[in-house]
Amino acid sequence: MGEEKQRILLIDDDWELCDLLREYLSAEGYDVEAVHDGATGVQRAVEGSYDLVVLDVMLPGLNGFEVLRRVRSASTVPILMLTARGEEIDRILGLEMGADDYLPKPFNHRELLARLRAIQRRLTTARPEPEPETLTVGEVRMVVRPRTVRCGGILLDLTSAEFALLKLLLHRAGTILSREELLMAANGRRLSYNDRSIDVHMSNLRRKLGPTADGTERIKSVRGIGYIYPLTAPETGPTA
Q: Which of 99, 141, 144, 199 could potentially form a cystine with 94 if both were Cys, beta carbons 3.0 to 4.6 Å apart?
């Protein structure tokens, strides 16, 4: 028996594009379903068992951002958003709302496939450990399997990209990590010119972790280089 096919949900009102993507991705070994409106997309993404969701921003009625918000309130399924070329605000907003990655339209089908496979690689990196791996720095404690993070005893709701970022930061706490290293961990791809996605993911992660007792950020930015999770940051905070 072969490996079970990865299931992808396409949410896009462009029927022709969906047909082309279904044909292309099916040939690459994926099981692809397409829906063409936001309300149906939310229902299928939340109730179905999908490995990946490809979501267009420009949907009639319930737009892509509202679909993303509703899906994220109920599911951590990885979501790649399709945005209009040149609309940087759409990309930033999508990442802030919990999208794992984005791709501007029009795009090359091979680029989409590369992005999807990068998300898959990131999600499978934690699977080989025979026992749950625990990372603890101060009051932040991560258990890799199952994927849980607590700060001061309070369970945090992280996207897959945020979880991957925090895992790397905690594992190498006290070490400055470049933005490219962090982007490879979060999105499985190299940094490109004017790519702000890692900074948006980091901003979301900082917000969810909250500051230390003295009001400083738990994750420090290093100008012109990247970010660091200090080993000696003061840690006190709420308890569950």
A: 99
Residue 227 has pLDDT above 50, yes or no: yes
Beta bridge partners of 35: 11
pTM listed for this prediction = 0.61
**What domains are defined for the chain?**
7-124 (3.40.50.2300), 134-228 (1.10.10.10)
Tell me what pLDDT residue 127 has.
Answer: 47
55-91: pLDDT as tens digits: 999 998 899 999 999 999 888 899 999 987 667 788 8
* pLDDT recorded at residue 130: 45
Angle at alpha carbon of residue 35, lines to 34 and 36, rounded to 5°: 125
Q: At what angle do helices 160-171 and 197-209 cross, to 10 degrees?
A: 80
- How far CA 194 is from CA of 140, 179, 198, in Å, comes to 31, 12, 11
pLDDT of residue 122: 73
- Residue 155 dihedral angles phi and psi, to the nearest 5°: -70, 130
Specify whether the CB–CB gap between 228 and 220 falls below 8 A.
Answer: yes
The partner residues of 84 in beta bridges, in order of sequence, read 105
pLDDT over threshold 90, residue 160:
no
76 forms bridges with which residues in the sheet? Answer: none
With 0-12 / 13-18 / 19 or more C-beta atoms within 10 angstroms meaning exposed / middle / buried, residue 149 is: buried
DSSP-assigned states of every residue in 102-148: EEEES--HHHHHHHHHHHHHHHHTTTT-SS--EEEETTEEEETTTTE
Strand order of the β-sheet with 148-151 is 134-137, 140-143, 148-151, 154-155
